[in-house]
Amino acid sequence: MVAVLAILHAGLAAAWVGGMAYSLFVVQPKLKKYFGSDQDGRELLTAVIASGNRWKVVGLVAAIAVTGLAMLAIDHEHWWIHVIKGILLLIAFAIFWYVSWRHWPQRVFATAAELPVLQQRLIVLAGTMLGLAGLAFALGVLAVHL
Prior knowledge:
Layout: H1 2-35, H2 39-50, H3 54-74, H4 79-108, H5 115-145
Helix pairs in contact: 1-2, 1-3, 1-5, 3-4, 4-5
């Protein structure tokens, strides 16, 4: 049972980390390159791509948390690593919440002069989320090998 949960947990975490990495290192630079100085076009397509994803990510993070807690309930070995992973997940999710419910509305109603700062802020926030989720993933791998 633990093995099945571990595979599910790792797969879900990999999906979140992979999705963030793809967005940050592939999608965002391609949008910037494709649209060049056309900020309106870039923002419109970015909004279309992001539309409806917030609740999917909430569900994904909830599934990561539930599978992690279920594994911890079954197997208490290296519990402290899983506590650290949980804290990292909570911090990453708090950043996601901020981006979803504060940053995006600011971006939607931003003036052309405000957009570059908001776009740069998203890169920093996304990079931070990716780092936290990636570290939690790495700690999970480490826990298996201790």
